[in-house]
Amino acid sequence: MEIDQDQSLSEIVSVTTEITKDIDKNIKGKEVKGVEEVEEIEEIEEIEGEVVEGEEEDTCYIHDNQYVLILLPSGNIKVVKLQKDKKISLGKFGVFHTNDIIGKPFGHSYEIHDRDKIKIIRNVAFREVDETDANNKETIDDPSKQKLSYEDIEQLKKDGLEGQDIIKKVVESHSTFNKKTEYSKAKYIKRKEAKFSRVFTPVRPTLYSVWEYFHTKNPSKIREMRIDSLSQMLTLANVRAYSKMLVIDDTQGLLISGVLERLGGYGVVIGIHDGENHNFDIMRYMNFSKKIYNSLRILSWQQVFKEESQAPFNYQNESKLSEKELKFYHRKKANYERIDSTRELLFKGGFDGLLIASQYQPESILETFIPYLRGSRPIVIYHINKEVLMNTCVHMRISRIYLNPTITESWLRGYQVLPGRTHPSMSTSGGGGYLLKATYIIIDDNNNNNSSSSLSSTNINIIDNEKNMEIDNNNIIKDDNVNNNVVDDNNVDDNVDDNIDDKVDLEKISSKRAKLNKED
Amino acid sequence: MSFLQYKTHIEEGDLVIAYITRENMMPLIVNPTMTYNNKFGTFKHSDMVGKEYGSKISSHNGRGFMYLLHPTPELWTHVVPHRTQILYIADISFITTYLDLKPGSIVLESGTGSGSFSHSLTRTIAPNGHLYTFEYHEERAKAAKQDFERHGLADLITIECRDVYKSGFEITDTVHAVFLDLPAPWDAIASAKRAFKQRRIGKICCFSPCIEQVQRTCASLNENGFVEIKMFECLIRNQEVHTIPIYTVKDAVSKIKAQQEKKRKRREQDGEKDHTTKSQHKQEPPNLSVSKTPTEARGHTSYLTFATFLPILDDE
């Protein structure tokens, strides 16, 4: 196992800053000695190497060689890769042996005692808060009310007191604790728990918990996508077993993790990534099985375009290679063949949905992938900036192959629910991003008169040709009369409203367009 | 099986969602001897057979057209005939993720209602998961059962007509997740607890529109040993996109001038003969794409209360 010095240092720094003046000055030394810190981010080279063996059911039990989120008493989360016969340091909160939790079901919390032993914590129900006559009338900010000094607490620790016992002592030594309201008592205890408690919880990595970790740690890494937006993408795109999806993922693999999980190893997804090598780092924390990874195909932008020729593979005589060279050669060859077959898969088309969370212009992405989509299949685009999607929405309305393009904003609010203390969270995420969704439809204008004008040429001409554009706009407004699906009612001119009862002669319009196409 | 797997072309006997307008969709079972009539004309089913899903077809009298969409649980929600209160897309999505549903999950739902959320759940847990769903209203349970059978979901769903307040779910040590959409979820929580697979972590969601229900639910969850009790509200806000011209104050001045000019002309016309004035070419300002929220929007659906079921310990 490698030790990521920077990571462990930053962990210590963040831990120490939490500690207020009065306690725990010596944890630094305690923590680092003899404990291997698990590195947090490493390059994914081979997905196969990351695979956790076992079936779905097993993901509820803590495994050797899997990623686990550790919830600390401070409320912070630390990601570790568990490996048997190792120790994991939780900074000032202590150390535990991985073997003590491997094989146990997820869900329970553990308290560290006697330096590196753990005991399971029985579920503690939240207690009812009784209304009392106490109020904050006499509350003044005075540290002298706490009779225990930093040195006293250190002495208590040396005497072998831990966790809950120290918290009890601290509360007892607060001279005006009983004058506090029940609410502020609860708050005070919670604060002390965050400081002195040694209870940690191994949290099962799920789409939600992994998202929560990255969203707290570095939201820009996942393009500030909130979990409600991500969930809506998966629902709107009807991601499920046996589908064939296209995913443009610049969210470090968050979106593709969601898609892979919902495919469950049935079906296929092609993930398109920025740069030369994929950076779907987040996937690894999901502890996907080999079966699930088998659904994944990956292409770079360069490999997406037919006209971008790929460097041909240099086939060699295998008998002339040394064992080491042969291993390298086989890996290279397998990689080349995988990309080649993925390109073939893409160009063959017939995809069931297009999900986009990308830094690149959505219109250009649509232009690239629409030919590979089947009819009546969903397109869902995420962006944190509404303006980007507005342009795409206008573009979609003009091109007519998109049914009902709609922009929505995701809205989510968490609550504190405690007996007598229920209210929306005081601080919350300011925004979860915007989604643009539409359904790809097949407009074969000539289905009634059997003309040969193809779908794609019609659409491209509509964009390029001003004459066609005029007719097309005309048609859109008429579409709107009939279908109410392209332009919002408010936006329709009055005189257009008058036309509602006019017979819309679609065949006339489409034959006109076919004629114009021929003229080009 | 069209809810569980996509098809490319429409065949006889398929369920097709006819999209007429955003608010007007119609489920059709394709039968070549039938026609479908609406105010935009007559559509022959025989025209649909062999068409690709997503095709646009014109009516026979040329008055209009419609799109033939592939059914999805979300479209079904729009067209479900015997609909009760339905769940909205924001809630459906958030619940599915929070309950950690994926292929293979075993879920308990109560009540079934119109069966629309059952469709969404089953889509996600297929092909190897299972849904146990309970409905106390006999007619609704029958109708939902019929829908599940027609839609090829029957193998994945066990539906039962039952008053769960009185007799509980009578399922033990089976499910990974529970969804309760009941007026008094607290009366079903103890029974739901037994339904969970006892030696693994599980998640429960209670769906209630009122805050008083949430408080009683939380108290009950707490008493029954559930932890991590959390509550959320989840909505989507529609953004209407328009392209509008943005005029400058100079345009405002020109507008007044134009009005004055018009008046002057009229006065002159009254007295004397017509003076032809050159019409100033009006330059259109550049367009700007803008968006706004609708003046009226959905402000509340329900509160989503979540909690975690803890696996029992060896000595329990």
Quick synopsis:
Chain A: This is tRNA (adenine(58)-N(1))-methyltransferase non-catalytic subunit TRM6. Chain A contains 17 helices and 15 strands.
End-to-end span of chain B in angstroms?
A: 43 Å
Shape of chain B: flat
Helical content of chain A stands at 25-40%
Q: What profile does the largest beta sheet of chain A have?
A: 8 strands, mixed
Q: Proportion of β residues of chain B?
A: 25-35%
> Mean pLDDT of chain A, as a whole number?
76
Please state the CA-atom Rg of chain B, rounded to the nearest Å.
Answer: 29 Å
CATH superfamily of the largest domain in chain B: Vaccinia Virus protein VP39
Q: From the 3D coordinates, which CATH architecture of the largest domain in chain A would you assign?
A: 3-Layer(aba) Sandwich
Report the radius of gyration of chain A as a whole number of Å. 30 Å
CATH superfamily of the largest domain in chain A: Vaccinia Virus protein VP39
Unreliable runs of chain A, pLDDT <50, ≥5 residues?
Answer: 1-56, 447-520
Task: Say what the CATH topology of the largest domain in chain A is.
Answer: Rossmann fold
Q: How many β-strands of chain B, per DSSP? A: 14
Spans of at least 5 consecutive residues with low confidence of chain B? none
The CATH class assignment of the largest domain in chain B is: Alpha Beta
CATH topology of the largest domain in chain B, anyone? Rossmann fold
Count of DSSP helices of chain B? Answer: 9
Helix content of chain B: 25-40%
